[in-house]
Amino acid sequence: MKAALNGNQEIGAPGMGDIKNYQMLIDGDWVDASDGGMFDSVNPSTGEVWSRVPEATEADVNRAVTAAHNAFSKGPWSKLTPTERGKCLRKLGDLLAEHSENLGRTESIDTGKMLKETRWQAKYIAEFFHFFAGCADKVSGETLPIDKPDMFVFTKREPLGVVAAVVPWNSQLFLVAVKIGPALAAGNTVVLKASEHASAAMLEFGKLIEAAGIPSGVVNIVTGHGEPCGRALTSHPNVARVSFTGGPNAARHVLENVKSNFAEVSLELGGKSPFIVFDDANIESAVNASIAGIFGATGQSCVAGSRLYLHEDIAEEFLEKMTALTGEIVIGDPLEEETQMGPLCTSGQLENIEREVAHAKVQGAKILVGGKQPVDKLGLFYEPTIIECPNQNLRIVDTELFGPVLCVQRFKTEDEVLALANDTEHGLAAGIFTQNSARSLRMANLIRAGIVWVNTYRVVSPIAEFGGVKGSGYGRESGFQAIYDYTRPKTIWMNTSDEPMSNPFVMR
To answer: Are 141 and 489 in contact (CB under 8 A)?
Structure first.
């Protein structure tokens, strides 16, 4: 074990005037890219470079996968009992909670997400590692009531091998927890590719690995772009599973890459989630939940409730309350406690939002509030925006913007809004607000989404599975089942008879 949580590796964000040079974690060592390549990371609140990150080469990726493969097949990790692995994960969760303030600050500087959210998230995500720590020695096979005499047949669950975990820049610590938590609990090893848009929090997190007692090579962290880093990792012959979170275009590349190694794949992609408010809903609660669902994290969430469907009888009251509250949202420095909404993470997001909002106006949409950059702010800021759309056919209605833009439509009947909610390429999440319990169950059953929140929104737990359908991907994260997804069954047949084998040319 060579990586250390001391000296120049002490975890924490640098001063705002410093430019910090990061290294990758490969086989327990903190290393530069093999060719010395680096790229800048920009603070979206200021537009200034605050850190530099290695640009991993194909050779770096090969080294990381080899380290993980060796750790899986012959290293000390392969010899630990499930209970011992669980103890490592529990310690990792404890360390995450202990360092949540500095981890959150690093993520906020790198992404523009609110410090009050990132530090809370870092601390709460410790519970995910604690959960999977408890799952580690609960994985079991079964004894089969086989239809053959004199045969004792049972199954055992075995780890897959090297897992390639690919995460985007948003909700990094959460996504790392739901990927490497079950992967390590099951006995796998990991190569984590951090997002090229914001890698720092992942590298700071990496400093906790050895301190948790996890041996060298079990968790490796590489940084870089899709080419060559992402391509080399997901296509590597020693990678057994790819767990990917990101956009659909990158996902298509992943699916092409795994044709060469036949790795198992899970995809958690984008969303354009419907948020449905019926005429009997608690308006105050629904308004607050809708604000949280679309303007929390500056709308940069895959589960953002970005399609608002309002029953025509309460639409005016709802929009009056929501637009008033939206206009009071405090935009500013994500490190300040009074700030309620920070900047977008990348200039590409801002450009895309401006383009799509302009196109929506051409198609007949009406901007109720927002719709532009704030005039008094530098950096990648965009006002919280509510757009009323005349129909479902506007391009913006089913285009994921990954920003603080809400599309509103009105409906009359349950059947009508169900059809509107399901008229999408996506299927990650949905929200339903009604006090009619029978209706809430009907709608929850009929909406095509992997997650449905009723009279609440944007809630997560390590106990609850997470994932989508249709264009939002497949596979599930979190929950006890997740650890089984990182294993495969082995069937073992034992002949309990002392009699010699019968006719060798006839299958039993």
So the answer is: yes
Is residue 500 one of the residues assigned to a domain? Answer: no
The whole domain housing 81 covers 7-269+468-476
- Pair (123, 183) in one structural domain: yes
CA distance 24 to 203: 7
Q: Each residue of 69-107: pLDDT tens digit?
A: 999 999 999 999 999 999 999 999 999 999 999 999 999
User: Which CATH number goes with the domain that contains 427?
Assistant: 3.40.309.10
The verdict on 197 and 216 lying in the same domain is yes
The CATH number of the domain holding residue 246 is: 3.40.605.10
> From start to end of 138-218, where are the E strands?
143-144, 151-159, 162-166, 189-194
Quote helix, strand, coil % in the chain, to nearest 5: 40, 20, 40
**With 0-12 CB in 10 A as exposed, 13-18 as middle and 19+ as buried, what is 328?**
exposed
Note whether 326 and 295 are within 8 A (CB).
Answer: yes
Distance from C-alpha of 63 to C-alpha of 258, rounded to nearest angstrom: 19
Alpha carbon of residue 467 to chain centroid: 10
Total domain count, the chain: 2
Secondary structure of residue 278 in the 3-state scheme: coil
How far apart, in whole angstroms, are the C-alpha atoms of residue 128 and residue 89?
Answer: 9
Whether residue 140 is found in the same domain as residue 243: yes
491 belongs to a structural domain: no
Residue 4 pLDDT grade (very low, low, confident, very high; cuts 50, 70, 90): very low
Sequence-distant (≥ 6) Cβ neighbours of residue 330 within 8 angstroms = 338, 339, 340, 341
pLDDT tens sequence across 119-170: 998 999 999 999 999 999 999 999 999 999 999 999 999 999 999 999 999 8
What is the chain's Cα-based Rg? 24
Query: What is the amino acid identity at position 203?
Result: L
Question: What contacts 392, CB < 8 A, 6 or more positions away?
Answer: 409, 420, 423
Instruction: Mark whether 243 and 345 lie in a shared domain.
Output: no
How far is 368 from 281, CA to CA, in rounded Å?
Answer: 22
Q: What does DSSP say about strands 385-388 and 366-369: parallel, antiparallel, or unpaired? A: antiparallel
By annotation, the residues acting in catalysis are 268, 302
Note whether residue 278 is domain-resident. yes
pLDDT in tens, 347-356: 999 999 999 9
Burial of 438 (0-12, 13-18, 19+ CB in 10 A): exposed
CA 247/CA 454 separation, integer angstroms? 26
Same structural domain for residues 105 and 187? yes
